[in-house]
Amino acid sequence: MSQYSDDRQPSWSEYWTELVELYEYKVRDLLDGKSPRGGKRSLGNLRDLLMTAPLDGQLMRRFRQTDRLWKSHLHQTVQARLQPAPVQWVVERPPSNTEQDTLEGLRFVVWRERVRELARTQAQLWMREGDLTTLRCAYALDVNLERGDASMEVPRQHDALVSLGTASVSSELMTHLTDQLCAAFIEPPAHHPGARQQALIRLREALTALAINPFPRHKDQDVTTARVQAAEREPIGPELKRTLIEGLQIETGGPRLAAERLAIRGGVEQLSAFLESLIPVSEGGEGPELPSIPQVLFAAQPRSAMTDPDDGSNSLTIRLSGGTQTHWRGVPLYWRRSRESWLVTIGALDYRFYARSQGTAPDTDTHFVPVVLGEQNGHALLHGDYLYLAAQQNDRGLLELLALSRVVAVLLDPNGAYLNLRLARAAAQRFRDGRIDPQGVNVVSAERYSAASPDALLSFARKGAEGLLTRLRQRPPQESEYVFRAAAEAVDAPEGHELHLLRALRRVQEPHKSLDAAPDLSSESGEHEAVPSPLPGLMVVTDLQSSARIGRASDLVMLDFSGEPITVEVAGRALTLRLDYKGDLAVIMPGAPVTLLRELLVLDVAAGGLLLVRQGSRIVVSYEPHVGTE
To answer: In angstroms, rounded to a whole number, what is the distance separating the alpha carbons of residues 630 and 627?
Structure first.
């Protein structure tokens, strides 16, 4: 007879009800892939007992329903044992090619390092979320991918064991998550056909499972529930009972709010969109392909060999064991073997690289090393004995951006009912269609420019400037001058007015010439040693107490922005750069709305345009006066 904590004797109906519930729990554990308590033998004995038990109608239906599930599971298990093992298809590995395999591994490492940089940057952006929903979703996804199941729930908002509010922890989390994504691309597709697709399918299935069920049932939830129910029946005070229940729920956690699901679903969507932006288009994603390495300096095989380094390229791959020195982008490079490492001299600086890997299985510790390539920053990476060098990756150089900003400032000149912008539109029509629509470039058409927002007008002017630059590169100079003269006549511009815009466009193609006449500026603060100028005609301001004044088109100031506010005087107006509450770089001027600086910004002032261009922490500030005001 069963023993109970009280003196009440249970009825036979309660006794059989408990046995049916126990049978249901055991079968559920079996279907979930777990071993039932007491083993499968105890499950069989319990089933035999219930088969002959005097169960009422409701209990009998519950028992038969559970028994059908058990029989179905047993049948599937037997059929799986009887089926012959599937034929193992043998994939012949391509002939070994040491250099090609190493270059494939190098392509993967370079791509993985770029993905890691994007992941660390994205982690900083998601840390601005008040509840860290997306990072919490990333944590659950990372654990589930590593375990190979969907057992990890999305952590609670203030889970002290996760610490996602710490920058180093969130950065490491996103790096580890993207490393799991990149692991599918270690081997070339010819070595393991379908492996990449299967890995990406598992990733997308894990994302879907996380969105559908962010709070999966804990494996010991039934035990915890039973203990909580028993605690609720204990004859103790309410405060003590609540403390006891909270202690019992520590391992499995308390119930989660249904409102959390909506926020978590949005976080999973953001996470999914970011991961899809990393997956190459060829694999069904939206990201760039693995970088190509077509030629190698001092290559072992002639078909991959490069005769001389290409100074116009942003990257260079060198087989260090094939030579000792070279010259790239105006910088001398020397290297020599030093036991298990390579000592590489780039310009006047020495760098030591350790060869940790060979072939297509790179070491996870392989990472980019920052290097200085003359007047540019860059990074380097060693894979085997192949050194990969890359200059600072930007769509356009800092000086080219500055020259482009001068063109945009010319187009945004509001004088003459946006005469320069209408002239540019007329020239674009003539280049594209061979004719000019007078109604589209007259004074009345300029009313929409006055009504447009500053951001929309800046985007429109920049797009127009870049379109004209493309046309100028495709046409001979004489034809371009003829087109601009025709455009000037169509908008009734003064004679020779079009030459000012044409010269500004041509400066973009040769940005260094715009600095030839720039004076050598120096800091007004004599308390600190001057910083060597990386570009001619630029003053570098790194000290917060330093100040500079800009009043002419030839005046340029480069700011090494460290995150603290810094002020520059431009055309008699104070301009302050500082981070806003979101961490974005804001430009503040008295009497003007706050504007964010992404890459290029032109602010119209009384007699000209205030120019700001940015690459990383380096910002160049200059000034472009309107025609006739200089």
So the answer is: 7
Q: Mark out the alpha helices in 213-290 (DSSP H runs).
A: 221-232, 238-248, 259-276
| Residue-averaged pLDDT of the chain | 77
Task: Quote the DSSP letter at residue 337.
Answer: E
Q: Between 100 and 275, where is the model more confident?
A: 275
Give me the residue label for tokens 């190509």: 292
Taking CA atoms, 225 is separated from 221, 243, 246, 250, in Å, by 6, 15, 12, 12
Regarding pTM above 0.70, the answer is no
Tokens, residue 575: 């301009």
Contact by Cβ (8 Å): 398, 466: no
Q: d(Cα 461, Cα 251) in Å, to the nearest integer? A: 60
Tens digit of pLDDT for each residue in 140-170?
A: 999 888 888 877 888 877 776 778 888 888 8
9: number of CA atoms within 13 Å, CB side?
A: 2
Q: What is the pLDDT confidence band of residue 523, given thresholds at 50, 70 and 90? A: very low
Angle 167-182/98-126 helices, nearest 10 degrees? 140
Q: How far apart are the first and last CA of the chain?
A: 106
CA dihedral 482, 486, 491, 497 (to 10 degrees): 30
In contact, 441 and 426? CB cutoff 8 Å? yes
Q: Are 366 and 358 in contact (CB under 8 A)?
A: no
> What is the layout of strands, in order, in the sheet containing 349-354?
325-328, 331-338, 341-346, 349-354
CB atoms within 10 A of CB 10: 12
3-state secondary structure of 216: coil
- Report the distance separating Cα 480 and Cα 464, nearest Å: 16
Q: 165-172: long-range contacts at Cβ-Cβ below 8 A with a sequence spacing of 24 or more? A: 165/127, 165/132, 167/123, 167/124, 167/127, 170/123, 170/124, 170/126, 170/127, 170/135, 171/119, 171/120, 171/123, 171/124
Instruction: Give strand ranges (E) for 64-219.
Output: none
